[in-house]
Design a protein that fits this description.
Elements lengths: L5 H8 L7 E7 L7 E9 L2 E9 L8 H21 L4 H4 L13 E2 L5 E6 L4 E2 L7 H17 L18 H14 L9 H8 L2 H12 L6 E3 L8 E4 L5 E4 L6 E3 L1 H12 L17 H15 L5 H5 L1 H22 L11 H18 L1 H16 L1
Antiparallel strand pairs: 1-2, 2-3, 3-5, 4-5, 6-8, 7-10, 8-9
Length: 374
């Protein structure tokens, strides 16, 4: 990505409808994809903070479609939040329009920018510091589903084509094994066999969708804790952020990706596989929060398939790491030799652990449902 210049920033800031005098501009946050800045404006005795972001066109090659998604979803969320007596300035993202009324600005270098009202008095956490944080993120992502349950998901663009098309990713994996462009396949036969033995997992949701058994929903597709704003005073989750990957999808995938990331007892790239397992305590905690947040908007089938969501997402992620390793580490950033191989082994160990605990996971969901109904 090209470095943002001072002149470029000045040009962009001059094209948004900001009020007051600009007193400070600084880089902000821990995100690795978009360039983010915190702007401070002074108006009388008051200081207002604004978020300004440059979209990464390498990751999101269709920024106009992405911004149409963000605009439609946030507008819809504001209406639903107002209906239930909430505060739309804190409970959803609010875009600041450009001088000509658009949701984004295209600068003289062809880069795309957008701006949001800063949500004060709330924090994003990169790691689960306490179980309550994980639970709060579950409630927030569930509530996201509840608020958008009647939104016509099919009207949204796919910001990343085939993002969770596990069946298609399986085909890409098989091609990578066949090509073996780095000559690595012989040394990872065990991992390759692991994937090939689970083609039914790769096909599972796609086959059900083809039969019309699963509803298309508005899904977030990056349901990690750091995409939730938690109120500093109450400790409650108030807002889902980072809507760049919001698109049509399956609710089980959103649930499953949270479990893959948040209920793993080890780091995503842990080399000591004896430390890797899926915590049933955290699985249950997240399931409770998520279903509470959803407020009965999911179908019985979707709820029963939540454990499968965890298994599919973990399998898909491990398969993507292994595919990248076979192709020469071209997609995921690596910080050491065989990093993607370590990552894939961690995910596969997690899949194996879920398979061993399969009955327990299903019983947990049944118990949580009966508690909700009771």
């Amino acid at each position: 990505m090209t470095k943002v210049t001072k002149e470029q920033l000045e040009e962009v800031i001059g094209h948004f409808k900001y009020e007051g005098e600009l007193t400070d501009t600084r880089p902000y946050g821990s995100g690795h994809i978009n360039d983010t800045y915190l702007l401070t404006f002074k108006e009388g005795a008051e200081e207002n903070h604004i978020i300004l972001q440059k979209l990464n066109k390498e990751v999101f090659p269709r920024p106009v479609e992405l911004m149409e998604n963000v605009m439609h979803v946030t507008s819809y969320l504001r209406e639903r939040i107002l209906e239930k007596g909430g505060d739309p300035l804190r409970e959803t993202l609010n875009l600041i329009p450009t001088a000509d009324g658009k949701a984004y600005y295209k600068d003289s270098r062809g880069e795309y920018w957008r701006s949001y009202i800063f949500i004060a008095g709330a924090t994003c956490y990169d790691q689960v510091e306490k179980p309550e944080d994980f639970y709060q993120s579950a409630v927030a992502f569930g509530n996201f589903q509840r608020l958008l349950s009647e939104f016509p998901a099919e009207t949204l663009h796919e910001t990343i084509e085939g993002f969770h098309d596990t069946k298609a990713r399986f085909a890409v994996f098989k091609q990578a094994v066949k090509e073996d462009r780095m000559g690595r396949a012989a040394s990872v036969q065990k991992e390759i066999e692991f994937v090939l033995a689970r083609e039914d997992v790769a096909d599972y949701f796609g086959d059900l969708q083809a039969k019309g058994e699963l509803p298309l929903r508005v899904t977030h597709n990056d349901t990690k804790l750091n995409n939730i704003m938690i109120d500093d005073e109450t400790g409650k989750a108030i807002c889902v952020i980072d809507l760049d990957t919001v698109m049509p999808g399956l609710v089980m995938n959103d649930f499953g990706d949270s479990i893959r990331f948040g209920a793993n007892t080890a780091a995503e790239d842990e080399t000591d596989l004896s430390l890797v397992s899926c915590s049933m305590e955290l699985f249950e905690l997240y399931a409770k929060g998520f279903l509470e947040g959803c407020g009965g908007r999911l179908t019985e089938k979707e709820v029963s398939l939540m454990p499968m969501g965890a298994r599919v997402m973990t399998f898909e992620c491990g398969m993507r790491f292994l595919t990248d390793y076979l192709q020469g580490d071209v997609y995921f950033k690596i910080h050491r030799e065989h990093h993607n191989l370590d990552r894939c082994r961690t995910q596969f160990k997690l899949v194996e652990d879920m398979e061993k605990k399969w009955y327990t996971m299903q019983e947990i969901i049944k118990n949580v449902v009966s508690q909700e109904e009771g």
